[in-house]
Amino acid sequence: MKLYSFFNSSTSYRVRIALALKGLPFDYEGVNIRTLEHRTDDYVAKNPNANVPLLVDEDMNLGQSLAIIDYLDRKHPIPRLIPQDGPSRSRVLELSYQIATDIHPVNNLRILKYLVKELGVSDEQKNAWYAHWVKEGLSATEALLSAHGFGSYCFGDTPSMADCCLVPQVVNAQRMNCDLSAYKNVMRVYEFCQQQDAFQQAAPNRQPDFQA
Ligand SMILES: N[C@@H](CCC(=O)N[C@@H](CS)C(=O)NCC(=O)O)C(=O)O
């Protein structure tokens, strides 16, 4: 298996956590999204999403981090990251989608670049945009966890796709100096995950393309 990834990409980070939790070996192929390697013809031919991550496994080329985690979970079900049925499946999907579809897209690199380059906003305004959507988004994450979360991870004492999404989103917010002190449940789960080996292996500073 090969994972096309960028060390600082939170969506790649989600998949790296899933691979590490499952103990699956893979080849790492760095794609530098700062220098637009994800927009080259060669890469877009492999991944029409024109972003990272991309997983290549035998004859499967798959983009979209949540689809990749689902694919891995079906092919390598131990440990399960997406419960098969019942309310726990719905809760894991709800929190994963909340982070992946409500928080992440509005603060993605191409959006921030568009704000600055095309709409001419200042760095200060860009940072205010980022902090606003993190605040809205993580407030909802916090409310969901406070209503339905239990155990050491988001939902119970085993990790799920929700934890794969939560940790990278917190790391992004920390990188942008957002105040996270109001999100007690989010930070409790985050701190716990950060002590686990699989989450440490997947961290940006442990990747071959890491740049300080
Ligand atoms: N929904 C996609 C989003 C993927 C995505 O946008 N990845 C970012 C890095 S975190 C990217 O490649 N950004 C490049 C850009 O914004 O131009 C997923 O979950 O995989």
Describe the structure.
- The chain is an alpha+beta fold.
- It contains 9 helices and 4 strands; from the N terminus they run βαβαββααααααα.
- It has helices at residues 10-22, 41-46, 65-75, 86-103, 109-117, 123-148, 161-175, 184-194, 197-201; strands at residues 2-5, 27-30, 54-57, 60-63.
- Helix 1 (10-22) packs across helix 7 and helix 7 (161-175) packs across helix 8 (184-194).
- The longest helix is centred in the middle third of the chain and has 26 residues, at 123-148.
- It is globular, with a radius of gyration of 17 Å.
- The two termini are 27 Å apart.
- Glutathione binds next to helix 1, helix 3 and helix 5.
What small molecules does the structure contain?
glutathione
Looking across the biggest beta sheet, what order are the strands in?
2-1-3-4
Distance between the termini: 27 Å
Mind telling me the C-alpha Rg? 17 Å
Beta-strand residue fraction: 5-15%
Low-confidence stretches: none
Question: Which structural class do you get from the secondary structure elements?
Answer: alpha+beta
Basic shape: globular
Task: Classify the helix fraction into a percent range.
Answer: 40-55%
Name the helix and strand elements from N-terminus to C-terminus, one letter apiece. Answer: EHEHEEHHHHHHH
Number of helices: 9
Largest sheet: 4 strands, mixed
Number of strands: 4
Mean pLDDT: 97
